[in-house]
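ClpP/crotonase-like domain-containing protein
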Amino acid sequence: MSVHKYTGKYHTAAEPTPGVLHLSFNRPPVNAFHDDMWGELRKTIEAVEFDAQYRVIVLASSLEKYFTAGLDLADAQSTLAGRKGLDAARQAFKLNKHLVDFQGAISSLQACRLPVIVALHGACLGLAIDLASACDVRLAAANASFAIAEVNVGLAADIGTLQRFPKVVGNDSKAREYALTGRKFSAEEAKQIGFLSEVVPGGRKEVLDAALGMAKTIAEKSPVAVVSTKHLMNHARDHSIQEGLQYTAAWNMSMLQAEDTAIAMKAVLSRQTPNFPPLEPVKAKL
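Structure:
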């Protein structure tokens, strides 16, 4: 089926190599996110997840100078203004629903069974940290700059940064510093604290090429092994080592029966490239 079905109003879609879906945000001039944009992202991620054609997702930006400037402040003001006239309790219920939906859209990247690689460049502000923290692998161009900028507009970051970023970097003090000051930090600093896997010399094209190269490598692996690895690492992050080991044993007693293991071992012994069958979605009939 055509990859173009995943192109939306605010992002483009391409399949640069088999099994790799490249989604590129495209809302000039700065990729500021409003409700429709994050809603569209969620629908796309949730649709791709069970498309047997794809095994890896790469997120990037089509704009030269911006990954994203973060939240569309004009849209946010309009959202808040639309609740005037309601009492405090009713405003709170509406705002809660909006926030939970927004959180769910960004969390869809983490929940997606396919690994998500993000290629960051230029200005990566506010929501960029939420998005990147929910992805599996983060690469950045040398020209990337970051900021947990919500505090600068009178907000506490509420879409996942305060929950994920400290776990990703493993440095609570540094995470608090960034979140409380809103100061910018460079790609090199982001790598030093563990936020990035790699800083790629150059800009948008160079980091995208690096991300697509990594995605191609992953797409050639067993989809059972790849999906299982992401699932088990997500589980391990919020559980003890012993709980993680027990869960992995229970998970793998099924996964080890997949034909992928035999295919991979045979390929290693014969020094041939393995060809793994795709994962088909299982749809409940309830």
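The mean pLDDT is 94.
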